[in-house]
Amino acid sequence: MVPPATADAVFHALSNPTRRKVLEQLSVGPATVSELAAPFDMQLPSFVQHLSVLEDSRLVKSKKRGRVRTYEISPERFKVAEDWLSARRELWEARLDQFDQYVKHLKEKESES
Amino acid sequence: MVPPATADAVFHALSNPTRRKVLEQLSVGPATVSELAAPFDMQLPSFVQHLSVLEDSRLVKSKKRGRVRTYEISPERFKVAEDWLSARRELWEARLDQFDQYVKHLKEKESES
DNA sequence: ATAATACTTAGGTCTTGACCTAAGTATCAC
DNA sequence: GTGATACTTAGGTCAAGACCTAAGTATTAT
CA A29, CA B73: separation in Å to the nearest integer? Predict the structure, then answer.
């Protein structure tokens, strides 16, 4: 069981377009703060806050070497979101299948008469 | 391409534990406002706001018959989240596979010497 | 017709989120 | 060791989010 606070942080991190674009960039490969910030029309301190949100959610991790901080994707964390979504899907698909079966059953009965 | 605003709304809707619990409940089957609200220690108007957020994101839909409003899951919308996540995963997995290949390649070279 | 039920509307508070500017620190390049 | 670079810290604003209470409307039950 994933603590709910974890899912909160992960989905919240994903809810902002700037942060999603950062994740899209990092999916391609690691990058530094300035590289990540370059495409955005935003002051650096504001942008860095987004990186903090991402890091707090653990969707990414970073390391500083000298004065340069490099970020990379932390793939394990995405499972929190993926697993929650697929658990929902399994539940309702099972239910809808059951409903389909029921409809099919009704139709068979109908054609008997 | 899904407009980013859509992903914003979907992930934002998913970021709150009350709303996720509602979605868990609705995955099991449709339910009315009062049925959904019952487990939560929250005033009804506050709770109904959560339902509005979910409906705005189109993760759920509702219909009113008489004085009772019934909610149900709207499965298509979940694909927005699922697709975004799986697109990221594909990218970084391709990259990490490539890296694995590279390491393997290095090891082969090493054993030649 | 009256009362109870099932929401809805209309506010108000308090916290969090998303930005900003200005100034600071730690490295690196010369 | 001086200046440029790459962030960091420390504030401050303004909008959005998550709750609340009080009162309203539309249905249904008696």
Answer: 36
